[in-house]
Input
Amino acid sequence: MQRQPYSQQAVLENENLISKTADKLVQRIKVHAQDFSRTRCVDVFPLCGLFSLEVICKAAFNKEWSDLESGASSLLQAMDESAKLLPIDAALPFLKRFGIGEYVPGLIGRTFKEFRNWSEATRKLLRDFQQDEVSRDRSQRFMATPLIMAEDGYLGRVLTEDEAVEEAMGIAFAGSGTTSTTLVYLLYNLSLPENISHQQKLREELRAAGETLHQLQNLPYLNAVIKETMRLNPTIISTLPRVLDVDLPLAKTGFALPAGTIVGMQNYVHHRDASIFPDPECFRPERWLGNCDLAENSITPFSLGPRNCIGQNLARAELYLAVSRIFRQLSLTLSKSMKESDMEMEDRFNIAPRGRKLFLDVKIL
Output
């Protein structure tokens, strides 16, 4: 039986590549930290981005980047800049329709050019993957395999190259930006002066445990730190619309929303419901320890139901392994050069810190 590329089994088979990439992330941080002294200010924001992009490129397209290549960094920049296209396209749809966006001067033109760079880079990834002998083996279920081999259930046929490229762009964007942003905010939260005790408690738990995914995924405090980061800094804070297929009664009102109504919810709002999460603006991993059924039923970083995030198994694995590698070996404190406004969540579907940076003072343990 073939495994599905997003299944827990597939993630376990990719554990070694995730671990190696997490080791590479820690090594990159150490290299920057050792430039002048034992404690050094390092911008971890781009390094976290490279980590998650390299994982998804290997898991999806069997592409392994070396530090000698600039392709991963260029692709990361193109995806980040392309996020600006969402509001531009909504406001000025004729620019894309008539293919004139790149000719507009300034920010708009640059955004369209970066989108083209992202599309072309993804097309090359997909073509290289298709030509690779490994990708022709149906027992090797990379995430891009169904795009080039499987019949689309809705269309009733194999995707065209343009359709496959569009789907592959979605894999790269959703599979890298969300995880890297969660990791960035986790490092930020634990590096705040008032949260150093949380960082030390996590380090003690990690050092007493093994380093495999199986050994990490049930650690109480590690899970609590990850959940609290996802609660406070959910990567998707936009309203997620759904169309009701049945009437929806509204509790205690006597009214019902009829089928066909568009409804939406926001992680940002209900993750800050003080009746469920006391002191909602406070980073408190301990809220996830002990009896917390109400909180567990109220956190939705990956959404719920049949439309929930298909890549959540991979995302969790990346976080477990990266966080484990980082805090076993490094002590992090927020640089005094950082301002609170630098870490404001900017909504570009995937959130990102407004300042596009996270400078941490790094001490190698």
Remarks:
- Residues 161-191 form the longest helix (31 residues).
- The chain has one domain: 8-364.
- Residues 54 and 65 are 7 Å apart (CA to CA).
